[in-house]
Amino acid sequence: MTGPSPLPKRPDSVRFPLELVYQAARMYYVDDATQVEIASDLNVSRPTVSRLVAEARRLGLVRIEVVDPFLDETQGLAEALRNALGLRSVHLTAVSNAAAPGRDLAAPVAAAIQEMDLHAGDALLMSLGRTVHDLAHSGLLPPLPGVVIVPAVGGQTEPQSWFQTNEITRMAAEATGARSSFLFAQTLPSPALRASLEDDPAFREVMALWQRAKGALLGIGAPTATRQVLSSALPDEEGLFDAAAGDVCLNFFRGDGSPLEFPGSDRMVRASRETLAAVPWAVGVAVGIDKVPSIVGAVRARLVNALVTDVVTARALLAAL
Fold this sequence. Notes:
Layout: H1 18-29, H2 35-42, H3 46-58, H4 71-85, E1 89-93, H5 102-116, E2 123-126, H6 130-138, E3 148-151, H7 165-176, E4 179-180, H8 191-197, H9 201-212, E5 215-219, E6 246-248, E7 251-253, H10 273-277, E8 281-285, H11 292-300, E9 306-310, H12 311-320
Parallel strand pairs: 1-9, 2-3, 2-5, 3-4, 5-8, 8-9
Antiparallel strand pairs: 6-7
Helix pairs in contact: 1-3, 2-3, 4-12, 5-6, 6-7, 11-12
């Protein structure tokens, strides 16, 4: 922890003499002086010392770096997992809160987005799912000015917020300065409605964005047998999805990556397996040991080519592989 060199330009809003602020900060952070000692040397009160130190941080005179002691281990683990799965990249967070992972995953997701090298006019797809919803809701996604964020699957009439892809897109765009492209379609429309969508200019525009997308943030769904809730649009026939290791944008797959189709799957409003396989940076986002077969299946299905997860899941993946 050090004072900067050179000193920044004095702002108009400074509350104390800048030299006094600097001296207090240097004594506190560099010389390890106590607040009592600083107060005596600078001839100010002890509460004033606290305010001087706080002012130094506010003005940018103090730069504090917290070094992750496990950084080398995390990077080595990410590289091992990247090689084991044959992915373009893997980004890890040390820990994640399974109930609300957005804040913990924000930094590795930002690193993954940086690799996409997105510019104004580029398209970024976003899927449904709790994790992607929590990322969008966190407000911690990196700035994406001029980028078009596009729903990768329909979901206009879903009751759960994490299945409402237009709302996920809206939140992500609002937090990043991107533009939203909405998809006004049910997840599984009737045959007649699906046919009419092909003639709708707004729907064709979204499909065109799918085809030229430069990147995608894709939640990887857990094995369906472990889930309490599936999309309300899916058929509820008992046992229909028991063999599914997971899904990406409602493209369901078995553990070996082979597709699991079902009645009506041919008219689903979703970015297809072929479309996702063609995205240069298709980043799967998933945490939890229960997601291990889902992540492996998604990679084998070529639905993702990069991964964001946590250290616990990464170790479980390597053990499984």
